[in-house]
Amino acid sequence: MRRCLAIVPFLLATPAAAQVCEPPATCVPKAEMDIFVKLLQEKQCQLNEGPEFELDPIQIVIDRNGRVFYSGADPKPYTLRMKWCSYEVEAKGKVNLVAAMRQPPIWGFRLRPKAYMGIIPTEVVYSSDDPREFRDFVDAGVMVDFLYYDWVNLNGAVGYRSVGAGVGIDLTENFGAYTGYAMTWGSWHHNANLSLSFSFWNP
Asked: What pLDDT, in 10s, does the model give residues 142-157?
C-alpha cells in the first residue's frame, strides 16, 4: 500500500515536468504557434508577390456631332478591388464624368494644297477668228487654300493653261468646287475658271 502511495505523486508530477522548458528554449502553446506560422507565411507572400488591382471600366463614346455617351448611371459608380495574399479590399465611390472634345476653329489662315481640273469658258470669245480644239478650254493644275471661313475658302491657282485666284467651296472634307479669275499663259487673255478640286491634306 505504501508503494502505491509513493508512485501517485510521481505520476502526477510527470506531465508538469514535461511542460517545463529549460533555458535557452522557450515553450509556445500550439495555438499560438499556428498563429506565428500563418503570420510568417503571410509575410513571405507579401515579399514575393505584389498586390492586384481591379477597376471598373467606364466606356466613353463621342460622335461626330460632339455628343457624349458613357456607361453607368450619373454620378458614375466606381469600384476598386485590391487582392494581396490573404487580404481582399473593395472600395466603392461615385465619379462625375466630364468629357470634352477639341473643336476646330471656324476660320483662319492655312496652307492646304489641292489639285483641280476644270474649264476656262471665256476663252471661246478669243477663238472666233481662230478655231481652237477642245483642249484649249480645259485647264488643270494645283491650288493652295490660304484663308477659310467654315466651308468657303480663298485660293491661289496655277495650271498648265492659266494662273489666277478665286473662291472655293468645300462640298465634302476633301472635295470641292472652285470659281475664279484666270489669265492664260502666253496670250494673257482674261478668263473665268470653273473647276472641281481635291485636297491632299486637311490641317
From this structure: 999 999 999 999 999 9
Q: What order do you get walking across the sheet with 87-95 strand by strand?
A: 52-55, 76-84, 87-95
Q: Tell me, what's the pLDDT at 193? A: 94
Q: How far apart are CA 169 and CA 153, in angstroms?
A: 6
Which residues are registered as beta bridge partners of 25?
Answer: none
Inter-CA distances, 147 with 62, 118, 168, Å: 29, 21, 10
- Whether 160 contacts 182, CB under 8 Å: no
Give the domain ranges of the chain: 50-102, 107-199
- pTM attached to this predicted model: 0.52
Compute φ and ψ for 11, nearest 5 degrees. Answer: -65, -35
Q: How far apart are alpha carbons 55 and 82 in whole angstroms?
A: 9
